[in-house]
Amino acid sequence: MQDVPKIVLKRLQETQAAGTHPDADLLTAFAEQSLIESERSRVMEHLSRCSDCRDVVAFALPTTEAVVVTASNHPTRTAWLSWPVLRWSVAVAGMIAITSLGILQYRHRQKSDALFSALNQSNETAATAEQALPPSPPASESQAEKQIQAQVQKKALSSQPDNLAMDRLVRQPNPTLPAASTMRGAPSRSVTGGARVGAAGGAAPKAAVSSPHNTFAAGDSKNATPRAAAKSAPSSSARHALQVPPSSEALEVMQSDAAPAVGSAEKQMEQTLQYQYSIKSEDSKAKNSTTTQAASSSASAPAPAPPNFEPQAALGLVQSSSPRWSISADGALQRSVDAGKTWVDVNVNSEPMSNGSNRAVTAESTYGHENKKRKVETRPSQVFRAVAAWDSEVWAGGSSATLYHSADSGDHWTRVLPSSSGATLTGDIISIEFSDSQHGRIATSSGEVWVTTDDGQTWRRQ
Amino acid sequence: MSADSRFLFFYLMSVTTPIPAPVQSAVAEMLTELYAKSGCEKFGLTSEGFAAILCNVAAKYLPAEASKSEARGFLLTLRVDELALARACAAGDNSAWEIFLTRYREKLYQAALRIAREDSAGRELADSLYAELYGTTTREGERVSKLASFTGRGSLEGWLRTVLAQEFVNRYRRTKRLVSLDEEIEDGAQFAAPAQASAPSADPRLESSIDTALAALSSEDRLVLAAYYLDGRTLAEVARILGVHESTVSRKLDKLAKSLRKKILADMIRQGIDRQQAEERLEVDVRDLKVNIRRSLGQESPPAAFLETESTVNLQQNIASAGQDIEGTKV
């Protein structure tokens, strides 16, 4: 706005008002625009010369209009777009984004959990199951006792009695099977190599790898893949481990399981063999090797199949949705209810659990490993070496003749001390295997082998 | 209303203040309507008394030569309800006071606070006005309320604010002005006097040109100029004083500044001053304006009693400086 010269303002100021000041009524009426024209011009003339009256009029302006004018001067729209407001909105938007991301992640996890259980139920193909391989428990390098676990579960199809596991156990190589030949060509002839076959699944019949137990076994191995497990395991000790624990009787049991399946083709047997090898690399204690066997009920899904039934038919043999079991590297008993995705320590001493839920294995359920370690620290004396499960029947054994049995998938545990004719089981249990819910055998570090034929009611030392 | 009483009433009115005949007849014609509108009955105000009030108000503002129709139009613009309330209060009617207090007491204090811009000063301002409204001042043993002077030209609320503003300007603003001038003097503005002597502002041709240009302006234009440049009012305030939009004031100011300069320069050139010289003289020193303020203040009425001693000193100083200025301008 152009400025008026000071000298002009000076002259303007010097023109003093003539006559008396308008009274309060007139000034009020002037400000309220309610004067008639002649009066208004008179008052205006006076105001143009009288600063006091101008001040009076200005002071007497109502407040309400001031608010309106102020509001029009500063529209609220611009206030909303001003930086101080935007700054906060940015922060709020960030928080919302993070929250929604978290919710999405949580839902995704739940969804994948459901997917895994669905996989369990519907017997997905081996490829799918392989994708679902859980992350292996971390290897604790500082551990003096390095255990390599390789759990192999195989379905022994009736049309393929000489699948790889059987082949290795009974040393009856069947050159006709591609899987077997593949394995034979493998550099490692250890049983852990069997795990490779079980998980690799490409060459083997799908039935052999389709079982969730199979994937569990593969995933439970110390290393990320069964192949790696096979590599890392000293083949000699592995072979040694293979030779020692499985007694002829166990092999016979397996054979007897497989044989009728071959004979009667209409009854498909899905046999799950879990081999768990705990190898002490330091002292090469082959006796540590444990072989557990958990086979799903063969009768659970009998399918009318031709003698030469398709591998897909075996897929119909569904593994039960029972939890999977494992021994961690530091000897803790672990259970997974989500197809091996997450593992939770099971405390056999705190049993029975308050509820029978499979999921509520322990109050200290955790995804991480910290809890696991803490748990081990609290009960260092109890180190598990072997676990075997058949449906809801779970057997877990470890150091100092520790043997626990659960008939309800690990919710309730009872300690069992096998004894017969005055003798009791001594030493560390290094191997537990059950061919079915009734027949099982336990091998100890002291070379003892105990067998039961009545679900652990009675034991017999061999 | 009997004819006798009416006669007596008009007689009395004519005795106290001369009421023009057209006004009397207009009031008489519209009395019933206005009386009903005002709600005087609630406050025990008789129609005769109300007619007297109306006559007084009309006589005060209407020119003596106003016609009857003008008087009627004037009466219609009055806020008779508030007029009745104020006058009833002035007469000491309790119900009227009750209404007045509930309606205006809070607003009065708020307005005083806003005008004084300070809590204690605002409260004091409002309290002093309150005393005047209630009528503590006595004249000839009678209590006279300030509300008796309310005529209903504007709203009662606006009138109260105006009265407050008048009181504030009379009591506070002058003292503040003195204080600020003292500060100016301390700041050394006073010692700039030697420069004034050389100020070439005392060209009578320049002043006459300016006065001519200013006189040519309408009173509204001068009011806008004075309020904005001299009083330091904001555009919004000026706009509200005049009841126009802010942008109108802004445009008007811009136009005024341009046209004033052009007119003054043209007038000076006409008087025989060449353009460049005229422009130079127009940009006269700022100090003249300050000096002018000081001088005009010295001419004002004495400030409040409690500033007596200080103010006399100030006045002396002001007069002295004003004398210097006059000398300076003469030189």
Number of domains of chain B: 4
Sheet with most strands: strand arrangement of chain A: 6-7-8-9
- Determine the fraction of residues in helical runs of chain A and give it as a percent range: 25-40%
Number of helices of chain B: 16
**Assembly type:** heterodimer
What general outline of chain A do the C-alpha atoms trace?
rod-shaped
Enumerate how many helices of chain A there are, as a single number.
Answer: 18
Give the N-terminus to C-terminus distance of chain B in angstroms: 74 Å
User: How would a crystallographer describe the biggest sheet of chain B?
Assistant: 2 strands, antiparallel
Written description of the protein model:
The complex is a heterodimer of chains A (462) and B (331). Chain A is an alpha+beta fold. Chain A folds into 2 domains: 6-73, no CATH class; 123-461, no CATH class. In chain A, 40% of the residues lie in helices and 12% in strands. Chain A has 18 helices and 15 strands. In chain A, the strands form 5 sheets. In chain A, strands 6-7-8-9 form a 4-stranded antiparallel beta sheet, with no helix packed on it. The N and C termini of chain A lie far apart (113 Å). Chain B is mostly helical. Chain B has 4 domains: 3-78; 94-164, no CATH class; 188-199 and 287-331; 204-284, Orthogonal Bundle (Arc Repressor Mutant, subunit A), CATH 1.10.10.10. Chain B has a two-stranded antiparallel ribbon with strand order 1-2. In chain B, helix 6 runs antiparallel to helix 7. Chain B is extended. The interface between A and B is large, with 55 and 74 residues.
Describe the SSE topology:
The complex is a heterodimer of chains A (462) and B (331).
Chain A: H1 6-14, H2 24-31, H3 37-49, H4 51-59, H5 63-73, H6 76-80, H7 83-122, H8 126-131, H9 164-170, H10 178-185, H11 192-200, H12 206-209, H13 212-220, H14 226-232, H15 235-243, H16 248-263, E1 275-276, E2 290-291, H17 311-315, E3 324-327, E4 333-336, E5 344-345, H18 370-378, E6 384-390, E7 393-398, E8 402-406, E9 414-415, E10 419-420, E11 423-424, E12 429-434, E13 440-444, E14 449-452, E15 460-461
Antiparallel strand pairs in A: 1-2, 3-4, 4-5, 6-7, 7-8, 8-9, 10-11, 12-13, 13-14, 14-15
Helix pairs in contact in A: 3-4, 10-11, 11-13, 11-14
Chain B: H1 3-16, H2 21-38, H3 47-61, H4 68-77, H5 80-90, H6 94-116, H7 119-134, E1 138-139, E2 142-143, H8 156-187, H9 193-197, H10 204-216, H11 219-230, H12 235-242, H13 246-270, H14 275-282, H15 287-298, H16 308-330
Antiparallel strand pairs in B: 1-2
Helix pairs in contact in B: 1-3, 2-3, 2-4, 2-5, 5-6, 6-7, 6-8, 10-13, 11-13, 12-13, 13-14, 15-16
